[in-house]
Amino acid sequence: MLEMYRNMEGDGVGLWFSSSLCIDVCACAHARVGTQMATGKGYDGAYGNGHTTTVHAFFSLIQRKYTCLCLYKHSPSVEVGSSVGHFHGGSIVSVVNEGIVASFLPVLKGLSFESAMVQDPKRCNSCKDSASSRDSPGWTRSSPFPDEVLDRVLSLMESHKDRSSVSLVCKDWYNAERWSRSHVFIGNCYSVSPEIVARRFPNIRSVTLKGKPRFSDFNLVPQNWGADICAWLAVFAAAYPFLEELRLKRMAVSDESLEFIATSFPCFKSLSLLSCDGFSTDGLKSIASHCKVKLLRYGVRNLTELDLQENVMDDLGGGWLSCFPENFVTLEVLNFASLNTDVSFEALEALVTRCKSLRVLKVNKNITLEQLQRLLVRAPQLVELGTGSFQQDLKPRVYAELENAFNNCKNLHTLSGLWEANFLYLPVLYVASASLTFLNLSYACLRSSELAKLVAHCPSLRRLWLLRDLGFVMAAASLCGFMSETIEDARLQSWDMPQEEDSIIKFRGSNLYFLVQVLDTVEDKGLEAVGSSCPLLEELRVFPADPFDQDIVHGVTESGFVAVSRGCRRLHYVLYFCRQMSNAAVATIVQNCPDFTHFRLCIMNPGQPDYLTNEPMDEAFGAVVKTCTKLQRLAVSGLLTDLTFEYIGKYAKNLETLSVAFAGSSDLGMQCVLGGCTKLRKLEIRDCPFGNAALLSGLEKYESMRSLWMSACNVTMNGCRLLAKEMPRLNVEVMKDDESDDSQADKVYVYRSVAGPRQDAPPFVLTL
Amino acid sequence: MEMKRQNDLNLKATELRLGLPGSDEQPEKRNNKRASSDMDNSSDGEKGDQECAPPTKTQVVGWPPIRSYRRNVIQAKKTEVDAAGMYVKVSMDGAPYLRKVDLKFYKSYPELLTALQNMFKCTIGVYSEREGYNGSEFAPTYEDKDGDWMLVGDVPWEMFSTSCKRLRIMKGSEAKGLGCL
Questions:
Q1: Residue B120, H or E segment
Q2: 3-state SS class at A328
Q3: Over the stretch A32-77, which tens digit does the pLDDT of each residue have?
Q4: Any CB–CB contact under 8 A between A1 and chain B?
């Protein structure tokens, strides 16, 4: 008898196939399944209105009696008391929740399907007995689960975490999983060797590889550190001749490697390079020239995606784009926004015209508005658009054409670029903005009024990236009470000067200069507008326009951020640069938005205290970790004592990534984090007073983490040697600065690896 | 430099700034400006050649944590925007607020100086290569792309107008040192 039960935690259901004991082997797996809805008897074929149900698929091994497929529903709107289905007589029933349509594909071939709805989500009696034996580790060698079932379910699993879980169940399932895996994700290219990957997964079509530690983005890792793709390519060419997709992040990629990719993989479709370095436009020429190749055995290779983001590359000229052959029509994604030199517009226009499936086009800033209009006319089907500079003197007729072109883009979800955006032309976007879910203005200097007007047309916005000019200071009238009238005047005056973004008012009274910088609440008004116009906003990133201007003594108010949190209750991802912050503001923000999963606050002056109370920012991050129980990623800044880390260790139980800079008072801080954050995977620390005791307190922990980075801390070479000695399966690498003393370990990078120490380490990387 | 100290005295010691005690710090390691650009509080010192812009020794490497690509773009933007717009800020010692002038609008130094004199109701005087503006009540100076403060008039107009980022009309007495740079 097949039975479904609701588990004890209340967040999932289980399915019993036959009687046995159920043991949870793996705890956190995701699967997206189903395209059919079942109500009553039989199946309909509908999928809910844009509600995707993420189903935790959870394979458990059982004793003889039951084979258990546990499918957990995980969605914020699942309420306790939602109905569950029950299986009887070998049938399967879907779980239907109010407002969310969930379904299973009829994975169980050959079984008849009946359904019954049970309103009361209690467990059925037969399940209760098994609950008690849940923890006993009985493994059977072979799974009573029919192979076709397993294969079918595996084909629905895309998440590598799920697949990892499946592979841990038993040897048979490990094999079934590895043969069926087509996409492999490698978060640290040195944690495994290409040979090991090729051995385990014979049928890979798509590879995602990440190389250098994240702090290499900020120039903390010297050149030629490694993470070269070429060793991987050599193995892939042999093992995965049908490789279709490569997604690389922080890898070193040479022109030769690009040529190798272009010529070695007959089925190659998709190349994405993010934050990579080492290549030039010559390499792109190879990719373009070989994008469409008629190969006797394999038919025709057709490139569909070329996505270049924020790479450090040599821009030797735009001729590469002209290398796409004229009969090449399959491009779907083209992103060259970050390239600096001109491309041939004729070639680009021709390419866009003939590639009817093009859905993502991000051009660089050399493309003018008029050219953009011509491109849009050719590709109204675009889903993602990166505009060029968006600045030009347009004749009225061209303006009208541009507006029409945008109005015809009915499917635009993502808009970026707007590098020099001339605010006069922003209104052309208004109609198309209605469908926008992601607006990236992080390279656009918009004034608050322009931003406000634009976001007013983006009611569906979920992600917003902004650039803020932080060069202003709020005039605190209370401080200069007797000057309040004049400050009011000054404020009024600043609004009267439309050309001025800022006003520096100097008053000389008695023998004193009063330097009052009046805030043009540019940013705050803009953010307030966001708060009121974009209720669906989930992600906000605010970058600084003046990151290095040290003259700004005081920061801008955080009231804008608070305003967003008030209006956008679904906010769960924030990256926010500011010059100062207060504990109270952060507390308010997380109270308004308790669902943060990613909270990255960067107070740009290292060690900056709460500007209102002059106290450390401990309570701010304490509030974050206490309130935001789902927090996965946290970046802290400002003046912080060990108390912050005590809070983190105590409350941030779901934390996976933590970034720390210029913070903490003693080893205790780091020890609290290592001891308390059970799910920690990545820890990156710079310029903190953590030493060997802290480093070594994590001995047991590092093997369950992807990596640890510590630079400019108090760790010594001896401490690192000890770590390396105790934990042979970790790679403990030290990079030394030339000027420092021999005993200090300036930059320490520790990561788990099944491939042993690096073979390609440059001389400045010492593997201990 | 003597001038720098004089300025320090004027601005720092007698300044009533908004903020809490102890929050007015300019830690050594974060100071990324050259001495000569220290004259004005809100000068931005390091917007030079962004192509090969290694951080100066006193700047904290890799902070704030912004990807190099983005950092370069923003710096280029600032240079570009400043250059393209040609609107530069003009401050005058003792004036209640700043003004902006469009350098593109003027074709030569005399035109610019006349305009400035009208704007601020001051007398700037005549430039001489040897003496600068010595003898006048005010001397016009400007900050160039490298962050250095220069005397207006030394270089050809074209060179000046493309490299000038902001103008400051200094009191003649303070400007004395500039003539001999």
A1: helix B109-120
A2: coil
A3: 222 222 222 222 222 222 222 222 333 332 222 223 333 333 322 2
A4: no
H-state helical runs in A664-709 = 667-676, 692-697
d(CA A515, CA B18): 8
A467 touches chain B (CB under 8 A): yes
pTM over 0.80: no
B127 vs A498: which has the higher pLDDT = B127
CB within 8 Å of chain B, chain A residues 416-435: 419-420
Q: Is A478 on the interface with B (CB under 8 A)?
A: no
Q: Report the residue of chain B nearest A577, measured CA to CA.
A: B64
> Which of A216, A443, A548, A634 has the most B C-beta neighbours within 10 Å, making it the best mutation to test the interface with B?
A548
Beta strand pairing call for A633-635 and A598-603? parallel
| Residue A479 forms contact with B (CB below 8 Å) | yes
Measured between alpha carbons, how far is A68 from A15 in angstroms, rounded to an integer?
Answer: 6
Q: According to the model, what pLDDT value does residue A237 have?
A: 95
Q: Which of A338, A500, A504 sits opposite B100 (nearest CB)?
A: A500
The one-digit pLDDT tens for each residue of chain B (181 residues) are 444 444 444 444 444 444 334 444 433 333 333 333 333 333 333 333 333 333 343 468 888 899 888 888 877 766 655 555 577 888 888 888 888 888 877 878 888 888 888 888 888 878 888 777 877 788 888 988 888 888 888 888 878 887 888 899 888 777 665 544 4
Other beta carbons within 10 angstroms of residue A597's beta carbon come to: 17
A554 vs B: CB within 8 A: yes
Query: Which residues of chain A have a CB within 8 Å of the CB of B100?
Result: 499-500
* Most confidently predicted of A167-181, A421-435, A751-765: A751-765
A546 and B44: CB-CB below 8 Å? yes
**Which residues 282-341 of chain A have a CB within 8 Å of chain B?**
310-312, 338
Q: Residue A303 has which token pair?
A: 């490139």
pLDDT digits (tens, 9 = 90+) for A694-751: 999 999 899 999 999 999 999 999 999 999 999 999 999 999 877 667 788 899 999 9
Answer yes or no: are the C-beta atoms of B83 and B162 closer than 8 Å: yes
What would the mean pLDDT of A14-24 be, rounded to a whole number?
29
Q: Rounded to an integer, what is the distance from CA A768 to the centroid of its chain?
A: 32
Tell me how close the Cα of A547 comes to any Cα of chain B, in angstroms: 7
Which DSSP string corresponds to A572-599? -EEEEEES---HHHHHHHHHH-TT-SEE
Question: How many Cβ contacts (< 8 angstroms) between chains A and B?
Answer: 141
| Beta-carbon separation of A614 and B55 below 8 A | no
Q: Which residues in chain B have Cβ-Cβ distances shorter than 8 Å to A505?
A: 96-97
* A278 Ramachandran zone, left/alpha/beta (phi>0; psi -120 to 50): left
- Among A500, A512, A554, the residue with its CB nearest the CB of B14 is A512
Q: Show Cβ contacts of residue B156 under 8 Å, excluding neighbours closer than 6 positions.
A: none
The secondary structure element, H or E, covering residue A235 is helix A230-239
Residue with tokens 């290095």: A548
Q: Are strands B166-171 and A438-440 parallel, antiparallel or unpaired?
A: unpaired
Return the closest-CA partner of residue A161 out of A56, A11, A72, A53: A56
Q: A550 and B33 in contact by Cβ < 8 A?
A: yes
Evaluate if residue A158 carries a pLDDT over 90.
no
